[in-house]
Structure prediction request, 283 residues.
Amino acid sequence: MPKARSNTTVPFRRVDIHAHTQFAAFEADRKAVIERALSSGTAIINASTKLSTSRAAVALTQEYHEGVYAFVGLHPIHTTASFHDEQELGPGSQPFSSTGEVFDPAAYRTMLAEPKVLGIGECGLDYFHLADDTKAKQCAAFSAQIALANETGKPLMLHIREAYDDALDILATESKVAGDVHFFAGTIEQAKRFLDLGFTISFTGVVTFAAQYVPLVEYVPLSMIQAETDCPYVAPVPHRGKRNEPSYVAEIVARIATIKKLSLETVETALLENARRVWRLPC
Ligand SMILES: [Zn+2]
Prediction:
């Protein structure tokens, strides 16, 4: 294990609960990006998409004394031949090179034993790109990850796209743990069903420029909201069009405060408390 750098002494004020600083998009300046977040009081949880990005996220947690954590899991689009994303896997990897990863509970169970691995994900269902066998493979991987969450007691970081009702049905019957619904883009009725199951709802930089999220942010109680960048994707205003990074989560927290007509301090404190409660953050 590499020796942990003793990083910031700045107390944490916010948590980017869904980042991807282990992705190839940060290859050139990863340390600087992470330091910028930590020194501004932002802790980071890197969500993973397959075995290789999970291992990279766990390795990153070991390089920092505190403030860098991980979720490990298999993203639904990586259960079948997946679309190539250079920001995730790096230049030179083959388009459609993945033949699909089958979820291996033993490999993920080992990583979940690490105290800085706080949950399982991103996992769930994604019907945006549908092939014939997509639904069956995604459902099998989702159920296997829910079973591992039940076994370990660690919460779920959910990625659901165009599949909210199916995901809710599976969670209601199978899951004994809660967690968070990442990048939520469903209806208020669907939000209510997740809240009733104990899941928080997290918002990305899209809330800084897309008006359709305002009623949802107004609806979700302050005690059940989290903020995330999903970096390197969807940078918030005023960084739109650039690569996103964890320190920009401050813009998302500020926007949530504006929509909810609350002080920034009130919202920052509440969201930090939510992150500590849901992920049992050690900082
Ligand atoms: Zn993500």
In short: The mean pLDDT is 92.
